[in-house]
Amino acid sequence: METNIQHLEKELSQFCGSQQIFTLPLCRTRYTEGIQYLAQTANAFWLLTDASVMGKSLRDKSRFITIDFKRYTPSEVETHGYDAAITYTDGNGTVLAKQQYHFTDFPLEQIRLLFCGQYPPIALRILKWSRGCPNNPLEHPLFHFS
């Protein structure tokens, strides 16, 4: 399992920007090749759908939304009563919403995605995976508006 996670992290590190844009039919959210790879490889279309629905519902509060998935440690599971959470912020630390998950098979401990756009184009992108999500995503080298 650890080898698969390391492989996924290595592959995700190769995505920066996108030459091809995909569309989630349900929400008509546009997303990058990195998101497509993540959804297919980690069987995480649920994450794409949840992030799209919540991102669109929060876009009147912020045009820039960070989406932070975090899988809890066993001791945190005991405290929170959930396996994982997704926190939606404005990128400046203001929490806009939080979703808790009783079960997840998502392979990464954490990942940060970006949802941007008031009206089309609306894009979902990967900002950071696994450990060490930056406090300010604009400082991260994978951050691009194109």
UniProtKB/TrEMBL annotation:
Taxonomic superkingdom: Bacteria
Matches recorded under InterPro entries: DUF6876
Location of the DUF6876 domain: 7-118
A family per Pfam: DUF6876
Protein name (Swiss-Prot/TrEMBL): DUF6876 family protein
Lineage, opening ranks: Bacteria, Pseudomonadati, Bacteroidota, Flavobacteriia, Flavobacteriales
